[in-house]
Amino acid sequence: QVQLVESGGGLVQAGGSLRLSCAASGRAFSTSAAGWFRRAPGKEREFVATITWDGGATEYGDSVKGRFTISRDNAKNTVYLQMNSLIPEDTAVYYCAARKYPLMSVVSEGYYYWGQGTQVTVSS
């Protein structure tokens, strides 16, 4: 069993940065791929980034490539999302998720465990 708790969201001006953290409980997390998704008001959930169990590979959604970086520290059971050059279109609730498998997935259906989400608001 894995439980996920996001933190680090907030209000930031366009061009600014935020770092989201996802703290996991459960030993299975260190052998599981993880990802970040987001849902903006009135829109469907969108893939943001994913990372393999060991951090050896990552993938990003087209809208965040070059601006966001996903990483993890398995010693701390934590996944991070560094968000730079934020734009108002990044405003959304950001969700951390974990798979039951070590390899990545870019679809939400590939994830079994989900956090409650953290709000990110980017003002223009």
Structural class: mainly beta
Count of extended strands: 11
Q: How are helices and strands ordered from N to C? A: EEEEEEEEEEE
Mean pLDDT: 96
Major sheet description: 7 strands, mixed
Strand content: over 45%
Low-confidence stretches: none
Rg, Cα atoms, Å: 13 Å
Tell me the overall shape. globular
Distance between the first and last residues' Cα: 40 Å
Tally of DSSP helical segments: 0
Helix content range of the residues, please?
Answer: under 10%
How would you summarize what this structure contains?
The chain is mostly beta strands and 124 residues long. It contains no helices and eleven strands. The N and C termini lie far apart (40 Å).
Explain the overall architecture:
- With 124 residues, the protein is mostly beta strands.
- Helices cover 0% and strands 48% of the residues.
- It is built from no helices and 11 strands.
- The protein has strands at 3-7, 10-13, 18-25, 34-39, 46-51, 58-60, 68-73, 78-83, 92-98, 113-114, 118-123.
- Strands 2, 4, 5, 6, 9, 10 and 11 form a 7-stranded mixed sheet that branches. It has a 4-stranded antiparallel sheet with strand order 1-3-8-7, with no helix packed on it.
- Strand 7 (68-73) and strand 8 form a beta hairpin.
- The chain is globular and about 40 Å long.
- 34% of the residues are buried.
- The mean pLDDT is 96.
